[in-house]
Write a structure and sequence with these properties.
Elements (H helix, E strand, L loop, with lengths): L1 E2 L5 E8 L11 E7 L11 E2 L1 E6 L4 E8 L7 E9 L8 E9 L5
Parallel strand pairs: 1-8
Antiparallel strand pairs: 2-6, 3-4, 3-7, 5-6, 7-8
């Protein structure tokens, strides 16, 4: 995924859970950290919104608005954390994001 530095964009991440589960009943957070930083600290996550859900498959899509100028140009990694029943909060590495392409 590539995001420009100069305009706000949404990051969309598909999350898979157990079939028959409506993931949207659980809070979701997304963290975007430098690719070289590894797994984010707890305070680096930002509340995200669910935008789509398919409970029979256990899949849902989370979205986070990344305002312009939030991150300097570079390669980042997106992570998702879903807080499930009982406080369990699995962390999922979700993919690389390049912010800025030299022309943004």
């Amino acid at each position: 995924m590539e995001l420009p530095e100069t305009s706000g964009q949404y990051v969309f991440i598909t999350v898979s859970g157990p079939k028959g589960t409506d993931l949207t009943q659980y809070p979701v957070q997304i963290a975007i950290v430098l690719e070289t930083d590894g797994e984010p600290e707890t305070g680096q996550y930002t509340a995200a919104d669910w935008t789509w859900s398919d409970p029979p498959t256990g899949r849902a899509k989370a979205a986070l608005l990344v305002p312009a100028g939030t991150y300097p140009a570079g390669m980042y990694m997106a992570w998702v954390q879903v807080t499930a029943a009982g406080g369990e909060a699995p962390v999922i590495q979700s993919g690389r994001i390049r912010i800025g392409d030299g022309g943004s």
